[in-house]
DNA sequence: ATAAAATCTCAAGTTAACTTGAGGTAAAGT
DNA sequence: ACTTTACCTCAAGTTAACTTGAGATTTTAT
């Protein structure tokens, strides 16, 4: 039986479409792990491929490496993550993803109804500045453009 | 009749919920413009508020300042942008937004069907590495995690 | 047995989008 | 008039997510 840790950085990099330096970087950030061979070169178990796919996928919908690392920290340390482990992870992100999709839809609709609309005064346009309630009071303005 | 350029940086900043330094920065990037009063202080026309709202909105769906600047460069230079001008802008972005929403939906569905699924081998999982076609050939693998 | 290709470590550089700070002027409040 | 706030400019710092480069060692290919 082969050693489970049989992939080199170069192989992983090629197969994942990332640079070797990225793998070093991810390792440094605690996102992936490796063992070393006799010559001190990294050797990866196959599940690193899935990890990296998940990292890339998560990044696509705006999750920071830090948050990905957090999520990964709930994966089992000693054994290879299985179906349930990944499933758990995906549930959290699915919610986030849905939230984000909804936000974008709202934004799209506001853009449509708003940016191109006639309400160039500030009284009623939801796209308008969050803190700008016509410099008076009254909080009719919705905060779409609110920075986190 | 009042001068059209009557807002100070501080006012704009407060009303838009951004820092003064951000406005300086945006101006430097060519995203907004101002005139100066006698004492060399910036004075903004009211439509800067809309511009900034639009910047913030566009950023929300991942458009870079550079691309926003590009889009703004199609706005009229001499007059205040009107309904049609903004409408034009929103059309482009609406498409982008829809594309993005679809991508996220695909991703969400892949996550669901994939991350938590049983296909822990690399043969069929669409979430898997783009360049990893089982290290053989055959390009059955879909590239979801492809970096731009 | 070499030479070429992969790796390793560590430091420094890169881009985006801002923020902070220093030193100085202008405007506003009392 | 005086003091406090608001502004101004310009340079440098910050965070995320990597990339690049230098100098040295390992593996692999011929």
Automatic annotation (TrEMBL), chains A, B:
Matching entries from SMART domains are given as:
HTH_MERR
Give the highest taxon in the source lineage.
Bacteria
Keywords carried by this UniProt record: 2Fe-2S, DNA-binding, Iron, Iron-sulfur, Metal-binding, Transcription, Transcription regulation
DNA repair found in the keyword field: no
* CDD domains the UniProt entry points to: HTH_SoxR
Q: State the InterPro entries in the record.
A: DNA-bd_dom_put_sf, MerR-type_HTH_dom, MerR_fam, Redox-sen_tscrpt-act_SoxR, Tscrpt_reg_MerR_DNA-bd
Instruction: Tell me which Gene3D superfamilies the record gives.
Output: 1.10.1660.10
Pfam families recorded: MerR, MerR-DNA-bind
Q: Which residues form the HTH merR-type domain?
A: 6-74
Query: Which protein are we looking at?
Result: Redox-sensitive transcriptional activator SoxR
**Provenance organism:** Shewanella subflava
